[in-house]
Each structure stands twice: as structure tokens, then as C-alpha cells.
Specification:
Length: 460
């Protein structure tokens, strides 16, 4: 099966975009994003296609003539937020019928959610799936010409759909930080996850296209570049992922190369060696464990054991002593006992994670876990969430205290949400400092104090 969109189709879409210029001249488009870094990058590509059509891209939905909501379906909370956002535009649509509203992303890929949108959100004009981004010009043309609601959703089953398109523009939100997808989809079918159903099976971009994009970004002055994939370790676009990282890390100049997300069963020793060897590869490894108990891991279909995860984590810490190791953990997976949750707590203590992204299990329709008996009461889930958070806060504080008195190299993010000058280290740790440094510039900071998830210091 040819997963690559033919150049002829890309040129057809560009021609459609050019034809739309007179129709959308002076109009604005807003893309609202929910979810992961992959969704953020998808939104940048959607915005790039909209700009190609002639829209001015804005973050202000109140002034936009076209609004696209890019949704997430990983957890119920994300879906509720996206639907709530869509609900905000009911009044806007009633006042101005010319405003076009679209909904896309993982949630749009699910049949039951599309049915809900069709019935309960009549002011949403169109929906499109996760493999339709290259057809944005055609979708917009249809939206402007059609008086009926419509959808651009693949008819193929989840084990067959999924494409890769090259050559469409990207409208990046940052001038120094960039996402670069290297692969899409997932073959793992963890029992709690909708990604394989919403994004299709794994497919990889060609190595030459990835390296060319990273090289262009480096030459354009980008300093923080993240290689993206649902499971980057499974990359197979002409080399393995360790080789891809190595090549992307040696393009000249000072920049940081990051990657996410990794699956423990596929995280190779060669990848760990690349992190250790190349200064431009960030010393941060996000390695989701999800649980510290073997029975729960098997129910999750994670395909590794507690011991295997610990061996991999210890190998990372041994080869890269300055590494920051972070993880994901699901609390209260169906049938999880107090004793089994205690195994997760003990694993967290054993590894010593710099940060944990903790989630209470959220049933996803169509997944194996959603049909399991033994769903855990919310009160119990909340208790486990708090216990894990309290433990991690203590561990993170101890790890950050070790930075006091040391000098760290920081990439400035300008002024943070709390009004402080801030940036990030190679370990992805947030640092607040005393003097303004322009966004995207490096500086050395002497660390004077530390919180569990922030370092504080002065510019040297």
C-alpha cells in the first residue's frame, strides 16, 4: 500500500488554495487546539494550509471568519473541553451565518462522537479526520460553496487508513521551537488507548524528508526541535530511530534535539548511546511506564514487565548520569488493587523520576479496557492520585535540590505565565532568573534555590 500522497494531489490542493484567494481575501481563520504535541503540530499544518488559501491566521476566535477546533480523544476530560469550546460558538453562528466552524482531530475520527456532533451541534459546519490535513483547501472550498453540513472522513478501517503528505506549508507558532513529526499512528493497541483507532497504523516519513526539515529549521535559527511520533522508537523510514537522532543532532551550531514519545519495549540501547554521545541531544528521556505491577501491565497490553522497565531505566541513568527521566502513570486501572498500586509507588521510588504525568483512568469507548469488569470508584482513584503526587513531589524536590550552586545552560522562553523571566535546561527543567533574555537565546544561570518543579537563579 502506498501511504505517500502523490505530488500531483499536493499540486491539485495548492491550485484549489490559489483559486480561493479572491473569496477569502481580508478574512481571518483561527485554529483552536486540544491535546498532545502531535495535535499542536497538526494545527500548525492546518494553519499553514489556511494561510495558503489566503486567510490571515489569528488567535482571536471572536474576530475569525473561520474557526477550526482540533480535538483530542485520549481522555474524557479532553473531549468534554473540546465539546464545551464548540458550544461557545452557538451564539456566534446565530448572529452571523457566514462564520464557518469545523471540527477535526482524534475525536472527529470516532463515529459515536461524529454522530453526537451532528445531532447536538448543528452549528458545526464540517468535520474532517486525522489523515485529511493535506486536503484543507478542498475542505474549505466545499465549506464556502456548500449549504449543507459535510465530513471528510476516511472510509477505511483503522488497520488500513493513514497517509503521509509532504510539501504543504507549516505555520509555526514559535520562532525558536518546532515540532517535527517523524511517524504517525501506532501498532501497540494498549488496552486503554484510542490512538490506533483514531490515527491508524504506524507509518514513517522518509529519512531524507525528516533530516531536510530539521536542517532547514536549524539554518533558520530554531533552537529547540522535537521529533514527534506516537512511538518514535518504531521509526522505520530508511533507518532506525537511533540513526535518525544521530544524523539530526549533527547539523552544526547550538540547538537542542528532543523526541517523544517512547515505548519502553522499543527504547534501544543505541538510542541511549546517542543521547549520551551528542551534546545537541537533550538530556531528557520521557519513558511512560503506566503501572509498576506486572498483572496490570499485562492487562494494559504494554508488552514489558516491571523488571524489564527497571532495567531500561537504570541503563539510561547509568549511561547518561545527567539525564532527566519522566514518565506517565495511570491510576486506578480496572481491577487494580491497593497492593498492586503499591507496586507502582515502589517503582517510582526505585527509579526516581524528575516528573510524573499522572492520570486517573478514563474509559475510552471501543477499547478493551472500557469493557472490563472491576472499574475503580472515583474516590479510590482520587486517593491513589494524591498518594502518587505526594510521593513524586518529594522525589522531584530532592532531585532539584542537587542543582543548587551549579550553573545550568538555559534556553530562554522570555517571560513566563507567572511574569518571571524563564527558560529550560537540556533536562527540560524550568528555570526562573533575574534578567531578561530574548526568547530563543541561550544563557548560563547560577542556581540559587529550587522547588519541586522549578529552579531559581541569576544570569551569569
Amino acid at each position: 500500500m502506498n501511504i505517500f500522497v502523490e505530488n500531483q494531489e499536493i499540486e491539485r490542493q495548492k491550485a484549489i488554495a490559489k483559486s480561493l484567494g479572491p473569496l477569502v481575501s481580508g478574512k481571518k481563520a483561527c485554529v483552536i487546539t486540544f491535546g498532545c504535541q502531535q495535535n499542536e503540530n497538526d494545527s500548525e499544518r492546518i494553519a499553514g494550509a489556511l494561510a495558503l488559501c489566503g486567510y490571515e491566521i489569528t488567535k482571536e476566535s471572536d474576530s475569525a471568519d473561520l474557526i477550526i477546533i482540533n480535538t483530542c480523544a485520549i481522555r474524557e476530560h479532553a473531549e468534554i473541553r473540546a465539546l464545551s469550546e464548540a458550544g461557545q460558538f452557538k451564539g456566534r453562528k446565530e448572529k452571523d451565518r457566514s462564520v464557518k466552524i469545523g471540527l477535526c482531530g482524534c475525536m472527529a475520527q470516532q463515529a459515536h462522537r461524529r454522530e453526537q456532533i451532528y445531532k447536538s451541534y448543528p452549528y458545526v459546519d464540517f468535520v474532517f479526520g486525522t489523515d485529511m490535513h493535506h486536503r484543507i483547501p478542498e475542505i474549505i472550498k466545499t465549506a464556502l460553496e456548500s449549504k449543507k453540513r459535510f465530513s471528510f472522513i476516511t472510509e477505511k478501517p483503522h488497520n488500513e487508513f493513514g497517509i503521509i503528505s509532504e510539501g504543504m506549508p507549516v505555520c509555526r507558532e514559535s520562532r525558536y521551537k518546532a515540532w517535527v513529526p517523524v511517524m504517525y499512528g501506532c501498532n501497540n493497541f494498549c488496552s486503554y488507548c484510542v490512538v490506533p483507532y483514531a490515527r491508524g497504523r504506524e507509518r514513517s516519513r522518509n529519512k531524507a524528508d525528516v533530516v531536510a526539515e530539521v536542517r532547514s529549521l536549524v539554518e533558520s535559527g530554531y533552537k529547540d526541535i522535537t521529533l514527534l511520533g506516537q512511538n518514535v522508537n518504531s521509526y522505520s523510514g530508511g533507518c532506525d530511530f537511533a540513526e535518525l537522532v544521530s544524523e539530526c543532532a549533527t547539523l552544526g551550531g547550538e540547538y537542542r534535539l528532543r523526541f517523544m514519545t517512547s515505548h519502553p519495549k522499543d527504547a534501544s540501547s543505541e538510542l541511549i548511546d546517542a543521547i549520551a554521545e551528542y551534546p545537541n541531544v537533550a538530556k531528557h528521556f520521557h519513558l511512560p511506564v503506566q503501572s509498576g505491577n506486572d498483572r496490570i501491565l499485562k492487562l494494559m497490553n504494554r508488552k514489558y514487565t516491571r523488571v524489564q522497565y527497571l532495567e531500561k531505566a537504570m541503563e539510561i541513568k547509568e549511561k547518561v548520569p545527567e539525564i532527566s527521566l519522566t514518565t506517565d502513570i495511570i491510576c486506578a486501572f480496572p481491577t487494580e488493587t491497593d497492593e498492586e498500586f503499591a507496586d507502582t509507588l515502589s517503582l517510582v521510588e526505585r527509579v526516581g523520576f524528575d516528573m510524573i504525568y499522572t492520570f486517573i483512568y478514563s474509559p475510552r469507548k471501543g477499547t478493551v479496557a472500557a469493557a472490563m469488569d472491576g472499574q475503580i470508584e472515583r474516590s479510590v482513584a482520587n486517593e491513589r492520585f494524591k498518594a502518587l503526587s505526594d510521593l513524586e513531589n518529594s522525589i522531584a524536590q530532592g532531585l532539584n535540590d542537587q542543582f543548587i550552586g551549579k550553573t545550568v545552560r538555559v534556553l530562554s522562553e522570555g517571560i513566563g505565565k507567572n511574569g518571571a523571566f524563564c527558560g529550560r535546561t537540556t533536562q527540560n527543567k524550568i528555570v526562573n532568573f533575574d534578567k531578561y533574555v530574548p526568547e530563543g537565546e541561550f544563557a548560563d544561570v547560577s542556581v540559587e534555590s529550587a522547588g519541586a518543579y522549578v529552579l531559581n537563579g541569576k544570569i551569569i
